[in-house]
Amino acid sequence: MSKGVCPHCHAAVTNDLAQSITRCPNCQKEYLTSQSDRLYNIFYSQYSSNGNIALNTSRNYEKALSEYQKLAALDGDSIEAIFGIAHSRLSLTKLGGNIVSDIITIIEEKQEKILAKTDYYPEIARNFIDLGQRQDAFFEKADKNLKNGFAYLDGDSKKRALELADETLALWLFIDKFFSDEYITYDEERKLIADRIVAIRETRKVIDACGISTNPNPSYSAVKDKIIFDSRVAVYKVHLAIIISQFVFVIAAIVGFSIMMVNYSINPLPGAIVFGVFASLFLVTNLIGRAIKRKLSQ
Q: Is the pTM higher than 0.85?
């Protein structure tokens, strides 16, 4: 048996590869099993690629969540879908929101099937570590927003910081359970997890000892709905526009160079001007594009 997609209604189906023709349980139409299998691979690749780009490059977390949910509808046991949804939902969490308990529940519901995929343990391990580090980044950014200098905005801000420390610790302890399996020998990751657990517990003590600002402006109520992870959709669109512009400038420069060479013995100046202008524009946009690419990779 294999997973597939109905060519007619695009519903996720299960195919018996021994059968050349299958009837869709959703729309009741017959289809070629081989076609359904190919369509599944195309859709899986598309949703996975779109989700990864949206999550890690453009940081369009709403789109990332949508793509990973489509992937989950296609294959509910997909490692990429399970962790992609967790990463996306965490990235969309507001300062006052608690998504960690939901993420733990989501993964726990799939834990048996996740652990059964022994061939995917390196990928699973990487996803667990990445998830913990994303929560670390959330905690760090949120904590800065809760402070005025070295003191917390008000009592509620300090309380929220302590809650964030507990949520982050809970996630790392949950991750630690996966690496506690006797068959999973990732010593470097285990050390990282142990260090994070110790560090978060120490951070909680620091928060507990931290004072409260005498000037509670803004207050916790004013910042609790702030989105912690910023989207980079606009920057990503600019980067795409620059790539397209560079392509146009290269073509125009080649045209200018051709005109210059054709008229070299008569009057090469017009072609040389066209070539020089567009070659310069390409160099400028190339420098800008490199700077934007570095920003997107940060």
A: no
